[in-house]
Design goal:
The chain is an alpha/beta fold. The protein has helices spanning about 25-35, 60-65, 80-95, 105-120, 120-125, 140-155, 205-215, 220-225, 225-240, 250, 260-275, 280-300, 310-320, 340-345; strands at about 20, 40-50, 70-75, 100, 130-135, 180-185, 190-195, 200-205. The chain folds into 2 domains: about 25-195, Rossmann fold (3-Layer(aba) Sandwich), CATH 3.40.50; about 205-345, no CATH class. It is built from 14 helices and 8 strands. It binds guanosine-5'-triphosphate and magnesium ion. It is found in: Mitochondrion.
Length: about 350
């Protein structure tokens, strides 16, 4: 297998490119968000719980900081619980109102609503109408969150409700392309705006670009499935992810019917056997090459697919990570702590 480099996004050795993914609708959406936000009572900024800092849109932060803002870390079901606790205290220390949620769970979204009502308590008593706006990078679950909010409101106010409507939700980034409103409360009337996910035009930090690709905010094809999958493996290897998986995987000989378990077994056994230095880029690339070859076998990729087979292997690996079948793994380290701390906290 050809070495493509784990850390850079460039095709030529030594040349490292920024991630450029800024489809036409994002520029107009960013403009529309800047305009509409002026009349909003509360901004709910949705980020990914696995990358609490990397999933912030840096260009919008100045604007968001000037508004009443609640940061919602979504997809908490995929983030490491210990790391979430550390992130909670980090944001508490910074006096930033925040809440971790799973947008698919009504109970979790209700918890978020309690924080919202508390934040807006004074306004709720005075204003007949309130407007909330949900913003964030693509694919963090803004529309899924709105659907759960709306369904919950619908169940509470059956008699007065408008017909049940739904925001479109999908696994790829860029699903919502226009701002649209949903009524989620009566007396006072509360409306919430769903907005298209927006990124900065150029993501110069390669690590941030790879994390955004791995968690699904940037289309895989922009960075390349193979590169994102190899980045995933390098992160799992360097942070000794296998130490938190079941010890039986180290000895397991036969494959099981659960593909995620077989992948974890390969990672565990290859890491335990590995006698190189994981801090060394070349050594890490050798380990990842070896693992990719083993995955190709267990994913039963036909030899005639040639190099396209690596894309198939990569897609499978990315799917396993994104559905939590490789464990709950947080990618962003909490600031001002060393790398060992992050590694062990993910265990
Ligand atoms: N595991 C998990 N998946 C979620 C959660 N919330 C949303 N998703 C999934 O994430 C994907 C993206 O959800 P959307 O609601 O379309 O995301 P969005 O932020 O509206 O995306 P854009 O419209 O592209 O900006 C979908 O496949 C959802 O089912 C969550 O809390 N946990
Ligand atoms: Mg959406």
């Amino acid at each position: 297998m050809s070495r493509k480099g784990l850390y850079g996004l460039a095709s030529k050795a030594g040349e490292v490119a920024a991630v450029n993914w800024y489809p036409g609708h994002m520029a107009s959406a960013t403009k529309a968000i800047r305009e509409r936000i002026k009349v909003v009572d509360l901004v709910v900024e949705v980020r990914d719980a696995r990358i609490p800092l990397s999933s912030a849109n840096s260009e919008l932060q100045d604007l968001l900081e000037r508004k009443k803002r609640l940061i919602v870390f979504n997809k908490m079901d995929l983030a490491n619980p210990n790391m979430m606790l550390k992130w909670e205290s980090h944001f508490e220390d910074h006096n930033q109102r925040h809440v971790f949620v799973n947008a698919h769970q009504t109970r979790s979204v209700r918890k978020m609503l309690d924080v919202v009502w508390d934040f807006l308590r004074e306004k709720l008593a005075k204003e007949p109408t309130l407007l909330l706006m949900i913003v964030g990078i693509p694919n963090v679950g803004k529309s899924a969150l709105i659907n759960t909010l709306f369904r919950h409101a619908h169940a509470l106010n059956k008699a007065e409700q408008e017909p049940l409507k739904k925001a479109k939700v999908g696994p790829l980034p860029g699903v919502t392309q226009h701002i649209s409103g949903f009524k989620i409360g009566e007396k006072p009337s509360v409306y919430v705006l769903d907005t298209p996910g927006v990124l900065v035009p150029n993501i110069d930090n390669i690590d941030t670009g790879l994390k955004l690709a791995l968690t699904g905010a940037v289309k895989d094809s922009v960075v390349g499935e193979d590169r994102v999958a190899r980045y995933l493996l390098s992160v799992l290897n360097s942070r000794s992810a296998h130490l938190r998986w079941t010890p039986e995987l180290a000895q397991a000989e036969s494959d099981t019917s659960e593909i995620g378990e077989n992948v974890r077994k390969i990672i565990t056994q290859s890491c335990l056997k590995f006698d190189g230095n994981l801090g060394n880029k070349e050594d890490m690339e050798c380990l990842v090459d070896e693992q990719m070859n083993l995955f190709r076998r267990i994913f039963k990729v036909p030899a005639q697919l040639g190099d396209d087979g690596w894309i198939r292997v990569s897609k499978q690996l990315l799917k396993l990570y994104r559905t939590g079948r490789l464990g709950r793994f947080t990618l962003d380290p909490v600031p001002e702590v060393d790398r060992d701390y992050v590694r062990f906290e993910n265990e």
